[in-house]
Amino acid sequence: MPAFPGLHEDRTARDLGCYGRLNIVTFTDSHSGSALYRLDAPHVRGCVMLTPAAVGDDPTQPVEGPDDLLVSPDKFAPSFAALDPRPLSINNIRLTGPVRTAPGEMAAFRPLRKGRTGRHEWLPRRTHVHALAVLDVVVRHWLNHCDIDALTTAARRQAALTFLDTYNSQLEGRRERLILARTAVADAERRVLELRDLISA
């Protein structure tokens, strides 16, 4: 029986050259479409979650960047709560997100941190290069070891549930406004008829 039911666990390690050995434990959730990576290396601690960007896209609209990912170093799906995931920290700088990226454009990826004012900021250059080395390995693992089609389907299903709630709420509001508008039109028509009767009397 798996230690965390509903999650597929995988363990591996990668050599980051001058940054040392990166130990990776991956937990994949086929329900949410996300994969949580628990990372451990010199000056690297914590987790990052990868999810198909389709999880936030309206399935009824044309798809932009169908292969895009959301990289979330400090926000994790509820299905991973039992793992007690900690935000990703590199060189004692806590990363934040999520940040959307295309897997083939990692060289242009810009990880973020939360500044003193609470606004997102770019990382210092040394930490930026270090973070890219780590996240590039994670994304490569995602591409080579995860069932992307199944996770994307799950992400689109989650998006459909979210947008269904949104559109149902909008539809209910519009129906109420339509009823009020029809009532107002009927009342105005009644007044017009009464006034015409008075004029023609």
Percentage of residues assigned to helices: 25-40%
Molecular shape: elongated
- Number of DSSP helical runs: 2
- Average pLDDT taken over every residue: 93
Strand content: 25-35%
* Unreliable spans: none
Question: Can you put this structure into words, describing what you see?
Answer:
This protein has 201 residues and is α+β, with helices and mostly antiparallel strands. It is 37% helix and 27% strand. The chain has two helices and ten strands, in the order E-E-E-E-E-E-E-E-E-E-H-H. It has helices at residues 125-145, 148-200, and strands at residues 7-15, 21-29, 34-41, 44-52, 69-72, 89-90, 93-96, 99-101, 112-114, 120-122. Strands 1, 2, 3, 4, 5, 6, 7, 8, 9 and 10 form a ten-stranded antiparallel β-sheet that branches. A hairpin with a 2-residue loop joins strand 3 (34-41) and strand 4. The chain is elongated. The model has no long low-confidence stretch (mean pLDDT 93).
